[in-house]
Amino acid sequence: MTKSVQDYVEGKSEEIANLTQRDSFRRDFLGNVAHELKTPLFTVQGYILTLLEGAANDKEIRDKYLERANKGVERLTSIVKDLDMIGRLETEGMKMNIQTFNIIELIQSVFDLFEMKAKKRNITLRFNRIYEFPYLVKGDVERIEQVLINLIVNSIKYGRVGGVTTVSVEPYNKNKFIVKINDNGEGIKQEHLSRLFERFYRVDQSRSREQGGSGLGLSIVKHIIEAHNETILLKSVHGEGSEFSFTLEKAMK
């Protein structure tokens, strides 16, 4: 009887602790969402109110304020889209369309997509070497493209002006490749590394918001890679740069 009561009490204590933790997590999440939405909303509202109060009569000011308001709307759209995606990932899981594809070709297509964005910061996107043959992997090509986009765009945003983003594909073991995205930017301090994949976690709040984005990109990346039953890794030295890497299953010939 004593053991049964003790087991019951321990079970209930654990249940209460889990509920408390989930409630705290919910409050933090809602607070983060409100905080992320508030800045672009107030920005857009401020520009529109200024235009309504008479600034719209000046063409130069009107065009400038409409452009800035549009950037705020784009930021809001990005946040809402990422919130929708991460909500679906965590409640419904992720339906994977597994197929064989050439990871080198996919990386090159992402390079091409963001070539102009990289040029604006004078950043070079390149492979570590010439890949003469395809590297065939198995995965959901659209999801892996999203992973590459998030990681390469991050390397452009936070890389050093005039720097380099280098991508390599290497054997990880006999069944897997590892894809590495390296930059020679400012790097990340050690105390931030363990939390970087958390939703809304930002190393530098002001600089991150200035660069845009939803604060959910790395969390989405982690979900996608783990849905493939693969591993994502991060190495960084503050002042020298960062390396994000993830594994993918080889497609057997």
**What would you report as the Rg, rounded to the nearest angstrom?**
22 Å
Give the mean pLDDT: 81
Query: Which runs of at least 5 residues are low in confidence (pLDDT < 50)?
Result: 205-210
Describe the oligomeric state of these chains in a short phrase: single chain
* Content of β-strand: 15-25%
Key features?
single chain; alpha+beta
SSE order and pairing:
Layout: H1 2-52, H2 59-91, E1 98-102, H3 103-113, H4 115-120, E2 124-127, E3 136-140, H5 141-158, E4 164-173, E5 176-183, H6 190-193, H7 205-211, H8 217-227, E6 232-237, E7 241-250
Helix pairs in contact: 1-2, 2-8, 3-5, 5-8
Q: Could you characterize what this model shows?
A:
The protein is an alpha+beta fold and 253 residues long. Helices cover 56% and strands 19% of the residues. The protein has helices spanning 2-52, 59-91, 103-113, 115-120, 141-158, 190-193, 205-211, 217-227; strands at residues 98-102, 124-127, 136-140, 164-173, 176-183, 232-237, 241-250. Strands 1, 2, 3, 4, 5, 6 and 7 form a seven-stranded mixed β-sheet that branches. A hairpin with a 2-residue loop joins strand 4 and strand 5. The protein is globular. The termini are far apart. The model is unreliable at 205-210 (pLDDT under 50).
Short description:
The chain is an alpha+beta fold and 253 residues long.
